[in-house]
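Need tokens for this chain, all 141 residues.
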Amino acid sequence: MPRHAGPHGRGELSLTADINVTSLVDVAFVLLIIFMITAPIMQGGVDVQLPRTEAQPIQPKEGLTITLDKDGVIYIDDDPLSYEEFRGSFQAIVEANDPAGVYFRGDGRASWADAARVLAVIRSAGIEDLGIVTEAEEIER
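Here are the structure tokens for all 141 residues:
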């Protein structure tokens, strides 16, 4: 007997529309794994030769990273600035971001005068949690 549609739709084969999310979840997991692998590699930022010290080296955590390269260029995270731009905008950047701490990475080949000027601007912005990032010194025994 053939089925036909009555006034209430009885006799029809109903279609159910489902979305198969298995492939979507697979793609999301692959992208997550790729991101987890590449994120630490991309953290490098500005290439500087850090000074070596006997003290336990500090690793930058969450906060603002200020880098001074050997040519005197200042970087806030990865954005290059001249000293004048840095001095003029650092207070506003601190107020906007409210960082948990500020980490200073100074190239060992940079002049002490440049480093002192950058540190003075950081201190004048009211930063009290300042870490100076160094590398561990190799002690010969």
